[in-house]
Design brief:
Elements (H helix, E strand, L loop, with lengths): L2 H9 L4 H42 L1 H15 L13 H25 L5 H26 L8 H12 L10 H4 L2
Length: 178
Amino acid sequence: MSVACVTELTQNGQWFSPLAILLSAAVGGFIARSAVNANREIARKRATLDVILKSESDDYFERIYAVFSSEKRRSSGLEVLLQAESDSEKKAKMEVDNFLNHYELIAISINQNILDEFFYKEWMRSTYIKHYKESKAYIDGTREESPKAYVCFQELAEKWDKETPNTPAIAHNISASG
């Protein structure tokens, strides 16, 4: 194509229309992508809030927390549950496991970007770390049979423990009694 043809095409506006369409599509794609990302962030924060509210108001969670709290205060600590023999000890062990599984699920959900780490950490950081430290010997004992038990819980608690908190601890129900 000669220079004269290109000059004539651009002067007649034949290149302007496709260029405008391409530019409009790119801008539209950028805006759509931004909206999708914003909606994902809102959904992640909403899911995090739902988990927090449910765990602080749910009767089942309150019960397993009460068992965890009671068992850790015993002179023999949580570790005695590793050799649970009686039905009541086995039930207590199951409820402690369920309580710790909750924290493992939180860590996995944060790792998978299902829950918002910053939001959850702002609310639960000190309690999360405290509960990990209180259950560390129990977790270590559990790993003798299940080497990968509570690995994500441990990794997240240790990560947060190394960090300096951004804000003062927020008082909430679960840390008030235990």
